[in-house]
UniProtKB/TrEMBL annotation:
<dbReference type="InterPro" id="IPR036922">
    <property type="entry name" value="Rieske_2Fe-2S_sf"/>
</dbReference>
<keyword id="KW-0001">2Fe-2S</keyword>
<keyword id="KW-0560">Oxidoreductase</keyword>
<keyword id="KW-0479">Metal-binding</keyword>
<protein>
    <submittedName>
        <fullName>Aromatic ring-hydroxylating dioxygenase subunit alpha</fullName>
    </submittedName>
</protein>
<dbReference type="InterPro" id="IPR015879">
    <property type="entry name" value="Ring_hydroxy_dOase_asu_C_dom"/>
</dbReference>
<dbReference type="InterPro" id="IPR001663">
    <property type="entry name" value="Rng_hydr_dOase-A"/>
</dbReference>
<keyword id="KW-0223">Dioxygenase</keyword>
<keyword id="KW-0411">Iron-sulfur</keyword>
<feature type="domain" description="Rieske">
    <location>
        <begin position="41"/>
        <end position="150"/>
    </location>
</feature>
<dbReference type="Pfam" id="PF00848">
    <property type="entry name" value="Ring_hydroxyl_A"/>
</dbReference>
<keyword id="KW-0408">Iron</keyword>
<dbReference type="Pfam" id="PF00355">
    <property type="entry name" value="Rieske"/>
</dbReference>
<dbReference type="GO" id="GO:0051213">
    <property type="term" value="F:dioxygenase activity"/>
</dbReference>
<dbReference type="InterPro" id="IPR017941">
    <property type="entry name" value="Rieske_2Fe-2S"/>
</dbReference>
<comment type="similarity">
    <text>Belongs to the bacterial ring-hydroxylating dioxygenase alpha subunit family.</text>
</comment>
């Protein structure tokens, strides 16, 4: 790896700082696409994107093209999107329904579980030809509450064990309306960032920046709508407030803003058309309307599942590394489906998708890109991760998680511990 020769890889990650090369070195980036994105449970898709047998979506596991599919019985598979014949990409559509995936090169075809089921002029391979041994490569796949993850690491513990306390936090996020199921909406915000993917994850549990980076958005909201609207708790010395950050284990991190929110709907910034929607919800639900209006709004939770899934408010952001200095970001709006939840609730949740991704995320992208530019300076070697490291304000929270003030760099340190563990692991990755 092309990092400073006097420092081995594990020395580049120290408790109070990390080396700039971790964001800029192409060899490190290539290695982490294998060791990190292949070596742990990595988020790929949501089950609502695969609604029926033979449904599929194309995704990437690090830089590996994969197909997430359901077979004829509805079971999930993650298939390496590479023909076992000559290596061509087999599936070339982003989503759809297919009983077979047929490679356009020589028409080898594979069923929705990855088995090789068709070879033109098969007799040309002779009597020893074994189709059963030539199916598409597979990753381990598991799903928790609809979130689909995959890994190429046979030694990884099961997904629930790996999630640890994050599983309970996912439950709390999903169960705000009892009995509802989550669905990803088709409307997405897709963004390009000229920065390293880890800058995005660094920011995902950073409670230090919002009152500064998003000041123009916060000031506009306050001037238009008055004090007390969404995100006003990020202004001032937020360490004196009630927000916290936590190390959830295995690189997962968490910002909890819920103690700052008395009534979700009443503290929300107004949205176009909300009055009519609110009236309809109140007419349909009566006494239950307040609870339904509250689930329109963000949950007060930023839950970050290492290495690439960010659950923010009531939206999902997925980090998709492309190059050492190029990252794609996809924001998904979510809907809640339940017999007793009116359609107007999800219409308002969709309107919320027009809010922060449009007016707040550009602030973050600008910061990420300027960080990438600044990190190119070789004489300035280190990035600090030491905020609240020695203040004595960290404690073990009620779920057994190490917790600190909202501006603590605790989440950064948690991320880098897991990153270093995976990058120095001797585990061999392999397809099934």
């Amino acid at each position: 790896m092309s990092h400073p020769p006097e420092l081995p890889l594990d020395a580049l990650v120290q408790e109070h700082r990390v080396h700039r090369s971790l964001y800029t070195d192409e060899a490190i980036f290539a290695d982490e696409m294998n060791r990190v994105f292949g070596g742990t449970w990595t988020f790929l898709a949501h089950e609502s994107e695969l609604p029926a047998p033979h449904s599929f979506v194309r995704r990437k596991l690090g830089l590996r093209p994969v197909i997430v599919s359901r077979d004829r019985d509805g079971a999930l598979h993650v298939l390496l999107n590479r023909c076992t014949h000559r290596g061509a990409t087999v599936c070339r559509q982003d989503e759809g329904t297919a009983r077979r995936f047929t490679c356009p090169y020589h028409n080898w075809s594979f069923d929705s579980a990855g088995a090789l089921v068709g070879v033109p002029i098969e007799e040309g391979y002779g009597p020893g030809f074994d189709k059963a041994a030539l199916g598409l490569g597979k990753a381990r796949v598991a799903s928790y509450r609809g979130f689909i993850f995959a890994t190429l690491n046979a030694e990884m513990p099961d997904l629930v064990t790996h999630l640890g306390p994050a599983a309970q936090l996912i439950d709390e996020w999903l169960d705000r309306w009892p009995g509802a199921t989550l669905k990803l909406q088709r409307g997405t915000h897709r963004m390009i960032c000229l920065g390293n993917w880890k800058l995005v994850y660094d920011n995902s549990a950073d409670g230090y920046h919002p009152g500064f980076s998003h000041m123009s958005l916060l000031r506009m909201r306050k001037d238009r709508y008055g004090a007390g609207v969404d995100m006003q708790w990020t202004i001032g010395n937020v360490d004196h407030g009630l927000q916290t950050v936590a190390d959830v284990g295995n690189g997962h991190t968490f910002i909890d803003q819920r103690a700052e929110i008395k009534r979700y709907w009443e503290q929300a910034a107004p949205m176009p058309g909300e009055t009519r929607y609110e009236q309809a919800i109140r007419a349909k639900l009566g006494a239950k309307a307040d609870a339904a209006l509250d689930v329109v709004m963000g949950s007060g939770m930023n839950l970050n599942i290492f290495p690439n899934l960010l659950i923010i408010g009531n939206q999902i952001q997925v980090i998709e590394p492309q190059r050492v200095d190029l990252t794609h970001l996809t924001w998904y709006a979510t809907a809640l489906e339940a017999p007793d939840l009116p359609d107007e609730v999800n219409a308002l949740r969709m309107r919320l998708q027009e809010d922060f991704p449009s007016f707040g995320e550009p602030d973050d992208l600008a910061n990420f890109e300027e960080c990438q530019a600044g990190l190119s300076i070789p004489e300035m070697e280190w990035v600090l991760t030491n905020r609240h490291l020695g203040t004595g304000k960290e404690y073990i929270g009620p779920k057994g998680m190490l917790t600190g003030p909202v501006t603590d760099d605790l989440p950064l340190r948690a991320f880098w511990r897991e990153w270093k563990r995976l990058m120095t692991s001797t585990t061999r990755l392999a397809a099934a």
